[in-house]
Write a sequence for this structure.
């Protein structure tokens, strides 16, 4: 009876995972996700939190067949590089019926889905994944 | 339906009586919580409030991802509603969300909270091969309850009618529910809905002709039409809110998705009867009046029609994998 | 820098189910030590390894290997930098010698990645990427490379088939290399038809999972007796290592920076061959472009034209067969590359020997360049 995935690790990350909380550098103005301790671009420590928009354009994508342990039921796993304007993120894509739906420039929106489940008795970890947009509005905290 | 019948060897006539064509099933990375989150996002956008203004989140479901651990807090956190909020998962078969809605009306009216969020969401399961499998479906609906000012519709009045009537249940630890077959009809569904609606009529003095629309809990395509007509409603009043033929029985979202679909179309001044039902058993009846504010709110999020048309057919194998009916060692 | 290679040893890269970490390390290390005149005088063992904790439940691999190799008491360090552990360890080993803290260092790269089924290995390899952005998902080890490959093809209007010349070249080189895991030639058109790992990247666009060990005995000028090669410089740089944080993901910032540091340090910008980090076809192409050996968007074309083939105008790319075909025992790979480069400049490489090779560049990186290392190996 043991857990494979760390509870505190996901828990302290929930604002980034649930709401795409990023960081904006007050020095150079650039935004990065997920938040680091200093700006990866200019090195400044003067950062403030900023929530990313939940909608953006697909820049690149792939369909993964060599899926890692624990994710067979979600296979094939679609992954995309999405430009949210303020910053780009890499996330799993979901609700992909036909891979031909994926093309550069397709409008994508974020929704909450299961990503990792710690076997039969452990926790279920939810994350934001992106799907072809159908107009679910962004609700900023 | 034909696909399920094919696998389990049902004769078409055995399911035709359900008046359901297809049922919606949640994908492999979905559950009642993820669907509830999406519905809630749509509701909050239409409510035009900031998440922090919501002070209660009630998640009504009978297919919670955890037996112990509230889904309401996860949804609340993901939407930015936490930390100053009440939060709870409610159970009363298919009417848990409706109970939450009634509780919220009380909390808002008393001034305890300004806004509350209620979500009805289920990934209904049935014992594979049981007739319930034809209709057990996945879906979610959500509503933000708040003060009259700015609301799209007003709950004029409401009642709840419950008795101990064990028509459908699931024992702790069991994966699928059992039911009393015919016992789920007259003694449960019909008796409680009719009693609640009649009590509402008596309390308010309203009659079927005062309503533009009537929406009932819809376990199949036949029951809501029968109970509606038995109560004196016409097919015209019933058809807009009837969604089960297209998506199956979404349990806690059943009547509520029908209600949302009606709200996508209703005009200011229209009066709506809403009567959810939950096994065990009980029913609520609401009289709801649509306001001027509805028109502007309609387009702030996708309509039910958009969700109905956005569909892809899957076979039994995909459904079985997706809903984890197949035993897999983790 | 004056660091001399006295001896090298390698094992074949393979699914060595019958050999554990210490056995593999011994096979390579004993060869290297014997070639260097014996174990006497070794001041340090520096071990390069990435996955011992995940695959073999072992911490402080260096400490335990020391005794296991008959060197109880020797000073030991274990260095980890993901896929770049090998060159990172070499950087440490070289600096111990340069600083006078050591006269003789045994550098051992060793890795086991076949202790579990591949799906678990994929989960482990996903750790090559930034945990805070990737570990909550199930992207696997190839998604980033696949997205980069697509970006490259779309940005430069380059066809998938053109990229297939790289794997074919690697296989062609490796079939001569007795230490290579994959010893068979392939034609370019076979690449796109192979098993899809992460679309558009196929099995033949990426390295096979294999275990291995490589070892080098390094010594200072004064302690050197019969050196086969010298390491003139090792430089490195960290980078964003991220497709989403990069403004231009088609240039690997840390590779460009590390190479720039090495060139300004050594004044060298020409070499006979390069052993570079082709964890994927796309990483090979981006490295060639990031160091300016190929103009942006032209690397695939140049590979197809034979520019980097053993018979081409040069520099010769990956005469060993590279990560693609010689194999990629993750943390050990950098030491393989250095051993191969040393044998090249000594004229003793048992596979494709670059004629008259005097100067070789070795490039190793982790992931998409979170950390990149570049070394210059020259003949003596």
């Amino acid at each position: 009876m043991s857990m494979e995935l760390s509870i505190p690790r996901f828990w302290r990350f929930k604002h980034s995972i649930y709401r795409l909380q990023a960081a904006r550098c007050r020095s150079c103005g650039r935004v990065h996700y997920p938040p680091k301790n200093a700006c990866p671009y200019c090195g400044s420590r003067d950062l403030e939190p900023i929530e990313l928009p939940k909608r953006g354009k697909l820049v690149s994508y792939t369909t993964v067949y060599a899926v890692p342990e624990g994710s067979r039921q979600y296979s094939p796993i679609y992954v995309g590089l999405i430009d949210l304007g303020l910053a780009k993120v890499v996330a799993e894509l979901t609700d992909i019926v036909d891979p031909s739906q994926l093309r550069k420039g397709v409008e994508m929106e974020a929704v909450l889905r299961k990503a990792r489940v710690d076997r039969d008795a452990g926790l279920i970890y939810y994350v934001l994944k992106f799907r072809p947009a159908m107009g679910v509005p962004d609700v900023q905290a | 339906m034909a696909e399920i019948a094919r696998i389990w060897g049902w004769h078409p006539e055995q399911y035709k009586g359900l008046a359901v064509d297809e049922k919606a099933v949640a994908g492999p990375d979905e559950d009642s919580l993820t669907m509830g989150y999406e519905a809630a996002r749509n509701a909050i956008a239409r409510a035009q409030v900031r998440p922090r203004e919501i002070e209660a989140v009630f998640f009504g479901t009978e297919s919670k991802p955890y037996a112990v651990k509230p889904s309401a807090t996860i949804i609340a956190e993901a939407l930015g509603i936490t930390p100053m909020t009440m939060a709870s998962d409610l159970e009363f078969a298919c009417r848990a969300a409706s109970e939450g809605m009634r509780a919220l009306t009380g909390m808002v009216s008393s001034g305890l909270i300004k806004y509350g969020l209620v979500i009805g969401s289920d990934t209904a399961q049935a014992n594979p091969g049981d007739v319930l499998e034809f209709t057990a479906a996945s879906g979610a609906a959500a509503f933000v309850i708040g003060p009259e000012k700015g609301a799209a519709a007003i709950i004029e009045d409401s009642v709840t009618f419950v008795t101990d009537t064990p028509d459908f249940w699931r024992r702790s630890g069991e994966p699928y529910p059992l039911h009393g077959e015919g016992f789920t009809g007259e003694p449960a569904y019909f008796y409680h809905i009719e009693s609640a609606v009649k009590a509402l009529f008596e309390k308010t003095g309203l009659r079927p002709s005062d309503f533009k629309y009537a929406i009932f809990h819809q376990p199949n395509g036949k029951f809501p039409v029968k109970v509606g007509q038995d109560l004196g409603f016409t097919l015209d009043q019933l058809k807009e809110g009837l969604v089960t033929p297209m998506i199956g029985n979404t349990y806690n979202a059943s009547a509520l998705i029908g209600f949302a679909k009606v709200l996508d179309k209703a005009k200011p001044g229209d009066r709506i009867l809403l009567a959810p039902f939950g096994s065990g058993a009980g029913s609520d009846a609401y009289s709801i009046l649509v306001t001027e504010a509805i028109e502007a709110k309609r387009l702030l999020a996708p309509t039910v029609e958009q969700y109905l048309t956005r569909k892809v057919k899957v076979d039994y194998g995909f459904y079985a994998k997706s809903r984890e009916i197949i035993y897999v060692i983790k | 820098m004056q660091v001399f290679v006295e001896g090298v040893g390698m094992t074949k890269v393979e699914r060595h189910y019958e050999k554990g970490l210490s056995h593999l390390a011994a096979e390579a290390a004993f060869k290297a030590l014997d070639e260097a005149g014996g174990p006497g005088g070794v001041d340090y063992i520096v071990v390069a390894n990435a996955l011992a904790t995940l695959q073999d439940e072992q911490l402080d691999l260096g400490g335990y290997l020391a005794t296991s190799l008959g060197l109880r008491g020797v000073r030991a360090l274990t260095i980890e930098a993901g896929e770049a552990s090998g060159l990172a360890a070499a950087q440490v080993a070289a600096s111990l010698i340069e600083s006078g803290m050591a006269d003789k260092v045994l550098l051992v790269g060793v890795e086991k990645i076949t202790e579990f089924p591949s799906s678990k290995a994929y989960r482990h390899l996903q750790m090559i990427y930034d945990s805070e952005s990737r570990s909550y998902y199930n992207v696997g080890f190839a998604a980033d490379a696949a997205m980069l490959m697509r970006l490259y093809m779309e940005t430069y209007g380059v066809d998938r088939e053109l990229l297939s010349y790289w794997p074919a070249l690697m296989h062609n080189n490796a079939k001569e290399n007795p230490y290579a895991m994959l010893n068979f030639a392939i034609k370019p058109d076979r690449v796109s038809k192979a098993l899809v790992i992460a679309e558009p990247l196929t099995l033949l666009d990426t390295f096979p999972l294999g275990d291995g060990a490589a070892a080098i005995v390094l010594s200072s000028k004064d302690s050197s007796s019969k050196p086969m090669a010298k390491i003139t410089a090792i430089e490195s740089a960290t980078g964003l290592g991220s497709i989403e944080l990069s403004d231009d993901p088609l240039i690997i910032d840390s590779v460009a920076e590390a190479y720039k540091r090495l060139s300004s340090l050594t004044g060298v910008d020409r070499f006979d061959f390069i052993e570079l980090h082709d964890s994927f076809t796309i990483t090979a192409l981006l490295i060639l472009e990031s160091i300016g050996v190929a103009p942006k968007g032209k690397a695939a074309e140049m590979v197809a034209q034979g520019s980097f083939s053993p018979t081409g105008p040069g520099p010769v790319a990956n005469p060993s067969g590279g990560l693609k075909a010689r194999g990629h025992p993750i943390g050990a790979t950098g030491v393989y590359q250095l051993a191969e480069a040393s044998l090249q400049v000594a004229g003793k490489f048992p596979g494709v020997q670059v004629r008259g090779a005097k100067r070789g560049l070795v490039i190793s990186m982790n992931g998409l360049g979170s950390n990149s290392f570049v070394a210059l190996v020259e003949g003596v």
In short: Chain A has a mean pLDDT of 96. Strands of chain A lie at 21-25, 31-32, 47-51, 55-64, 77-83, 88-93, 107-117, 124-132.
